[in-house]
Amino acid sequence: QVQLVESGGGLVQAGGSLRLSCAASGWIFSNYVMGWFRQAPGKEREFVGGISWSGDHTGYADSAKGRFTISRDNAKNTVYLQMNSLKPEDTAVYYCAAAGPRSSIATARWEYAYWGQGIQVTVTS
Q1: Is 111 helix (H, G, I), strand (E, B) or coil?
Q2: Residue 101: CB partners within 8 Å, gap ≥ 6?
Q3: Would you call 110 helix, strand, or coil by DSSP?
Q4: pLDDT of 2 above 90
Q5: What pLDDT sits at residue 27?
Q6: How far is CA 116 from CA 12, 14, 86, 120, in A?
Q7: 111 with 104: CB under 8 angstroms?
Q8: Is the pLDDT of residue 44 over 90?
Q9: Distance CA 61, CA 105 (A)
């Protein structure tokens, strides 16, 4: 059974940092493109960033570029989202997702087959 479990969320002041982790189990994690999405109240779930199976390639939404960094440790079956210079508009539930074996980073929700339960990130001004 495929499982994705996020951790590391919480409350932080604007300008602060958080690192989210996503632990995967139930399949060959190292073969899969992984991604992070977020959903703010009343808004659609949106792509934040993605990482190739090897970790050599990453891609980010414009809102995340220069502030967020995705990385992965295939030996630990874990993907990370380091978030720096956080803003109140980053407040959302953050989701880890797995897109399957593919050669390019996936940016659309429909490309992701498996999802975590989500974790709350709240940034106060």
Answers
A1: helix
A2: 31, 32, 33, 53
A3: helix
A4: no
A5: 80
A6: 22, 26, 22, 12
A7: no
A8: yes
A9: 12
End-to-end CA distance of the chain: 40
For 29, phi then psi, to 5°, come to -55, -40
Of 96, 92, 93, 94, nearest to 114 by C-alpha is 96
CA dist 66 and 57 (Å) reads 15
DSSP string, 30-94: GGSEEEEEEE-TTS--EEEEEE-TTSS-EEE-TTTTTTEEEEEETTTTEEEEEE-S--GGG-EEE
Distance CA 107, CA 91 (A): 20
- Looking up tokens 């602060």 gives 16
Residue with the two structure tokens 């959302």: 92
For 83, other C-beta atoms within 10 Å of its C-beta total 25
Per-residue model confidence as pLDDT tens digits over 83-111: 999 999 999 999 999 998 887 899 999 99
